Amino acid sequence: MTDADDRQLIAILEDEPEIRRIMMDVLEGAGFRTMGFSRATEFEAALRHITPDACLVDLGLPDRDGLALVHRLAMESGAAIIIVSGRAQVQDRVTGLELGADDYIIKPFEPAELLARLRARLRRPAAKAHPDQRSRARFAGWIADFDRYSLTSPEGSDTPMSHAEAEVLRIFLDASRRLISRAQMQESLGAAGGESFDRAMDVRISRLRSKLGEDPKNPQLIKTIYGAGYIFLAEVSWN
Questions:
Q1: Residue 2 pLDDT greater than 50, yes or no
Q2: I need a surface site. Which of 5, 100, 138, 172 has the fewest CB within 10 A?
Q3: Does residue 170 form part of some domain?
Q4: CA-CA distance, 210 to 63, in Å (whole number)?
Q5: Residue 196 falls within a domain, yes or no?
Q6: Taking a C-beta distance cutoff of 8 angstroms, is the pair 24, 36 a contact?
Q7: Could you tell me if 106 and 155 lie in one domain?
Q8: Are residues 33 and 82 in the same domain?
Q9: Which CATH number belongs to the domain containing residue 233 in this structure?
Q10: Please, what is the end-to-end C-alpha distance for the chain in angstroms?
């Protein structure tokens, strides 16, 4: 945030007042600012005037499909997105991550776990949380801007990136021309492993390739080394 209060702002969309209050109390006690909302409509109206660093979103909303809202946030916002939901099925978690969420916490949750996983998400991709770090990269005619969460093509057209896509691209750019294993990516992202992580990574890398104009059958920038991981092949310069 850029106003006089430099604490990170967490927007909480949760229609159960007791759960919302617990979340707000825990996060404010840890030094965050919070804003709580019970309806998707008021949450979306507030986003026209605020820029949260992270959004905690329940899926069981009374006035909107939570998954559709998560997808919109992923496409239009640079905030970290964490789903906090009572839906515990693997497919719900996979779908949420595929639509752009950065993490998925199942209710009932331990407040300490919520806080730890939020902090893990806010440490990446770091351009917004740590302005002294490099925020613009050039490679193969492209420009990646991690302050604006955008990709600029060699022809000058802009394409937005979700927070999750930016996290993955940053890992590739920071390790250009080096093999990156799935385990290393999982560690860098502070993510839990398993099927949902693998599916989410497949989707994010596929979307990055699409936005970079890659041929999915013969990508030139993000190469898959089967059984080993990935290599980003372009030279990268930062400014």
A1: no
A2: 5
A3: yes
A4: 33
A5: yes
A6: yes
A7: no
A8: yes
A9: 1.10.10.10
A10: 22
Q: What is the pLDDT of residues 71-127, one digit of tens each?
A: 888 877 778 899 999 998 888 888 888 788 888 999 999 999 999 989 888 865 444
pLDDT at 126: 42
Mean pLDDT of 143-148: 91
Q: Are residues 142 and 205 in the same domain?
A: yes
- Residue 230 pLDDT more than 50? yes
Which pairing describes strands 80-85 and 103-106: parallel, antiparallel, or unpaired?
parallel
Q: Measure the CA dihedral 39/45/50/53, to 10°.
A: 40
Whether residues 13 and 116 fall in one domain: yes
Residues 140 and 101 in one domain: no
Is 127 a member of any domain?
no
Total domain count, the chain? 2
- pLDDT at res. 195: 65
- Residues 153-191 have pLDDT tens digits of 999 999 888 777 888 999 999 999 999 998 888 888 776
